[in-house]
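Input record (one chain):
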Amino acid sequence: MAVLPTGRALLDPLKILKIAGLDYGMRYADFGAGTLGHFVFPATDLVGQGGHVYAVDILKGALQGIESRKQLEEVDNLTTVWGDIERAGGSRLEEDSLHLISMIHLISLLRKSPQILDEVKRVLRHDGRFLLVDWNPDSGPVGMLDGTRMKFEEARKIIEQGPFEAERQFEAGPHHWAAIYKPKS
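The corresponding structure, as predicted from the sequence alone:
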């Protein structure tokens, strides 16, 4: 029987966030944070008390899961935000306020709603970065298999049609690619 990696063996958020440059005192948001806050909680450690983390999701149930863990672990530099990133102003975050924004496993949403990039740009600082992590289409029978996977090159075309340009691409794990984008000059 094959052993499939899970958790940090599948996708190590701390390592990925460090590569993306997240550090003490920064402000970070995970768009589509999900119930477990897989990237959110490691980010709270990286930014420390001098920074802040926002978990943004349209699903109130997902945010309730993060809120429960936040209270249990007594995390005080994390805010959950019920928001719709597909709408202008929908993240409900302050303009030009974030050093880093991530979207994990949401490339199919970007394909359907490229206007999300406008919301990312709105809340990102001029020197901020946008981190995108998704399944590698060639990674075999793990993760989403519904035809929504996309190669980095295809994702890059979508993103660079908007207000961003690629800065760096890297393997984010055995079944994922990651890319860091910066606002176009």
